[in-house]
């Protein structure tokens, strides 16, 4: 005897798994009435390197930004270890896309890395020597210590990306969201970053990366989230990263959902 | 001559007195006021610029005019003095902020870009203010004269209590910015990341806007609403040219702002009838122009020197390599200057000049119309040729990855390669068995150096 199906409530989430670093439930995000993410449900498992893949406009960055509360969700909720973002903020690190900031800003690489410590330093206090040393250690871990005093505009793209990573490391988080950390970096930087991600994973941290290069998914990542406005597949790379799922994610033709999205979007315009 | 000649000439005497605040009470008060105002503008303006909100101050200033007029009308209706700053300035602040909020609201509709929204709001609010002012001019309250000084400012009318207000405003701005300096910088640099770590970016923006309002409104009387934006924008933009460090930039911006206020006020005391507000802005403009031209690294002169030097070094390297290769090919160290020009595709005149310079620096010897590398020139030519061939070969061997993954453009790369990179190139090529033939010898090079 099956119980009758009940509508899923949006504010109570018995399904959120408290052991999961990120548990997303019924998440829908829309820009100006045009939906970008539809009804996303997924759990990220602890201690894994997770890639988010999908075509342009699939909502990869949007998923991360919605998780971090940078853009409002239309419906649904995200829980971190079973709790809302605010309660777990200290345990979550973030590497935004490189082109999101003004690289001509008058700060040094060390200043940027030290920003990862600000939440720990607190208001009205200067950055102490101990925090500066911690930031320096983080720069060292990404091979940027010798550039600590450089103004950030004088760094190459790959070096800027490493500085962003150092800042995230300085947050000393348990869970990292990274928006294309390997985009536009040279081969040496890519190797260094991947080694660092593995170190983090081996230390029990969880890393969720937007990743563009389908060639390297199997080499670099443990799990994959295949996204195209909705979750096409999610799980261990070996199980779900299949030609069928790739076709479903990247398929050339507009899906029904795309069409619905366009229709709704053009109504709003 | 036993003593220094006294400053006898009247104009110089006047200037000296003005500079040392000895031109009487009023002039001293005005100079103090504009100096402190300039410093406050430099401080608050720095963050407005870094947060890309520099033009917000302009909208705010223009939108304050209807507020001034409305406040005057209300005051007169209530039977109070319509020209009390205590009434006019809050009125200015209210419509100024309304103007800024209107720009935000227009931008948020997604139908109009921020710059256009600003232009619309700024001009419409200013127009409204002018209309209200002319209504006031035609009324017969008997005290409307002088209200239009808000448009161009009337620095000379600054009183001691005005200076006190300016000083308090500057003090408040300095303390508040001092308290949240690092968070403000963080939010200005990367607001997403700041938000994620729990920095209240919106509240900091609000604080910044409040400070901009404060300085702008206080500046209305001194420089007028048309030029108020200048004291917030010009000092930080000038300061940014001199340094890449935030704290140094803030200090310089405060200094430049204060200098502008001081210099402008002094100049307008000496040169009678010049409105101080405009002169302050002109002095700031001069500081900006000098910064733009003279600043190290970011200045135009420095940039021109750098690019001229790079061009010269490239031409020199090419010439050295051409001599080396021609001599190598012909088996004769004496290379005709004419063939050198052909090899390089450069004009004979330029080639001759370069040969002369190289002779002067001891890299070549000249005899009739032929040149020969000296020991020093040979060593340098070997280094350059070696770099060039390694780089060329690297691009050939790794063409699939190299060009897109190397930050320096291929044309200029060989001049910028450091010793460590050259070693890397050599190892990479050696491991593939792809070292170029006839590579000038490394060890021989060191021997020649010694």
Keywords:
heterodimer, A: 269 residues, alpha/beta, 6-stranded mixed beta sheet, 3-stranded antiparallel beta sheet, 22% strand, B: 450 residues, 74% helix, disordered C terminus
What does the secondary structure layout of this molecule look like, with pairings?
The complex is a heterodimer of chains A (269) and B (450).
Chain A: E1 22-31, E2 34-44, E3 49-53, H1 60-67, E4 75-79, H2 85-88, E5 92-95, H3 109-115, H4 118-121, H5 129-141, H6 157-170, E6 175-179, H7 187-202, E7 206-210, H8 217-220, E8 223-228, E9 230-236, H9 237-240, H10 243-250, H11 256-268
Parallel strand pairs in A: 3-7, 3-8, 5-6, 6-7
Antiparallel strand pairs in A: 1-2, 1-4, 8-9
Chain B: H1 10-19, H2 25-50, H3 56-77, H4 85-108, H5 114-138, H6 149-152, H7 160-179, H8 181-189, H9 191-196, H10 201-223, H11 228-242, H12 246-270, H13 276-294, H14 300-330, E1 335-336, H15 337-344, H16 348-360, E2 364-367, E3 370-373, H17 375-397, H18 402-405, H19 410-416, H20 419-431, H21 442-449
Antiparallel strand pairs in B: 1-3, 2-3
Can you characterise this structure?
Chain A is α/β, with parallel strands linked by helices. Chain A has 11 helices and 9 strands. In chain A, the strands form 2 sheets. In chain A, strands 5-6-7-3-8-9 form a 6-stranded mixed sheet, with helices on both faces. Chain A has a 3-stranded antiparallel sheet with strand order 2-1-4. In chain A, β6, α7 (187-202) and β7 form a beta-alpha-beta unit. In chain A, α3 (109-115) crosses α5 (129-141). The radius of gyration of chain A is 20 Å and the shape is globular. Chain B is mainly α and 450 residues long. Chain B has 21 helices and 3 strands. The radius of gyration of chain B is 32 Å and the shape is elongated. At the A-B interface, α3, α4 and α6 of A face α8 and α9 of B.
């Amino acid at each position: 005897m099956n119980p009758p199906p009940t509508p899923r409530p949006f504010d109570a989430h018995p399904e959120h798994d408290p052991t999961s670093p990120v548990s997303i439930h019924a998440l829908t995000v829309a820009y100006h009435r045009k939906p970008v993410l539809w009804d996303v449900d997924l759990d990220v498992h602890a201690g894994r390197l997770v890639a988010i893949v999908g075509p342009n406009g699939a909502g990869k960055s949007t998923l991360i930004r919605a998780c971090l509360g940078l853009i409002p969700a239309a419906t649904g909720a995200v829980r971190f270890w079973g709790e809302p973002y605010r309660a777990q903020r200290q345990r979550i690190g973030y590497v935004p896309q490189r082109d999101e900031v003004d690289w001509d800003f008058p700060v040094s690489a060390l200043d940027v890395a030290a920003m990862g410590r600000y939440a720990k330093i607190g208001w009205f206090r200067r950055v102490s020597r101990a925090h500066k040393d911690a930031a320096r250690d983080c720069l060292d871990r990404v091979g940027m210590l010798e550039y600590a005093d450089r103004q950030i505009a004088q760094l190459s793209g790959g070096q800027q990306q490493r500085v962003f990573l150092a800042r995230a490391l300085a947050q000393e988080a348990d869970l990292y969201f990274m928006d294309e950390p390997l985009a536009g970096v040279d081969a040496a930087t890519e190797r260094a970053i991947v080694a660092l991600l593995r170190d983090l994973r081996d230390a029990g941290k969880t890393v969720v990366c937007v990743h563009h290069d389908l060639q390297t998914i199997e080499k670099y990542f443990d799990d994959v989230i295949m996204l195209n406005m909705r979750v096409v597949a999610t799980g261990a790379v070996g199980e779900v990263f299949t030609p069928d799922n790739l076709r479903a994610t990247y398929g050339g033709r507009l899906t029904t959902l795309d069409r619905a999205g366009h229709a709704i979007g053009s109504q709003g315009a | 001559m036993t003593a220094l000649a006294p400053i006898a000439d009247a104009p110089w005497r006047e200037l000296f007195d003005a500079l040392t605040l000895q031109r009487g009470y009023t002039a001293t008060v005005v100079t103090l006021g504009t100096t402190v105002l300039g410093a406050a503008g430099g401080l608050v303006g720095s963050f407005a610029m870094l947060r890309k909100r520099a033009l917000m101050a302009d909208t705010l200033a223009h939108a304050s005019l209807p507020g001034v007029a409305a406040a005057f009308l209300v005051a007169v209706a209530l039977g109070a003095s319509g020209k009390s700053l205590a009434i006019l300035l809050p009125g200015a602040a209210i419509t100024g902020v309304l103007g800024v909020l209107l720009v935000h609201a227009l931008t948020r509709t997604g139908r109009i870009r921020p710059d256009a929204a600003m232009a619309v709001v700024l001009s419409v609010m200013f127009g409204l203010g002018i209309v209200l002012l002319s209504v006031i001019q035609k009324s017969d309250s008997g005290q409307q004269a002088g209200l239009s000084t808000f448009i161009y400012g009337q620095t000379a009318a600054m009183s001691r209590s005005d200076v006190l207000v300016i000083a308090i405003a500057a003090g408040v701005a300095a303390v508040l910015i001092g308290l949240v300096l690092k968070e403000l910088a963080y939010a200005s640099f990367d607001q997403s990341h700041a938000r994620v770590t729990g920095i209240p970016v919106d509240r900091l923006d609000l604080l910044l806007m409040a400070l901009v309002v404060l300085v702008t409104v206080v500046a209305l009387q001194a420089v007028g609403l048309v030029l108020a934006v200048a004291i917030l924008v010009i000092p930080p933009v000038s300061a940014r040219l001199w340094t890449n460090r935030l704290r140094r930039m803030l200090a310089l911006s405060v200094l430049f702002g204060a200098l502008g206020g001081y210099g402008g006020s002094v100049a307008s005391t000496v040169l009678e009838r010049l409105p101080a507000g405009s002169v302050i802005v002109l002095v700031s403009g001069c500081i900006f122009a000098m910064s733009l031209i003279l600043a190290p690294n970011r200045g135009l002169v420095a940039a021109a020197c750098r690019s001229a030097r790079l061009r010269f070094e490239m031409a020199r390297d090419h010439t050295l390599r051409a001599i080396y290769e021609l001599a190598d090919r012909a088996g004769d160290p004496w290379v005709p200057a004419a063939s050198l020009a052909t090899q390089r595709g450069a004009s004979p005149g330029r080639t001759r000049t370069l040969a002369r310079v190289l002779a002067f620096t001891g890299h070549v010897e000249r005899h009739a119309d032929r040149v020969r590398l000296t020991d020093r020139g040979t060593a340098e030519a070997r280094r350059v040729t070696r770099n060039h061939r390694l780089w060329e070969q690297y691009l050939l061997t790794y063409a699939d990855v190299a060009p897109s993954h190397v930050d320096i453009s291929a044309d200029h790369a060989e001049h910028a390669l450091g010793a460590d990179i050259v070693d890397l190139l050599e190892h990479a090529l050696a491991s593939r068995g792809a070292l170029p033939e006839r590579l000038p010898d490394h060890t021989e090079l060191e021997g020649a150096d010694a």
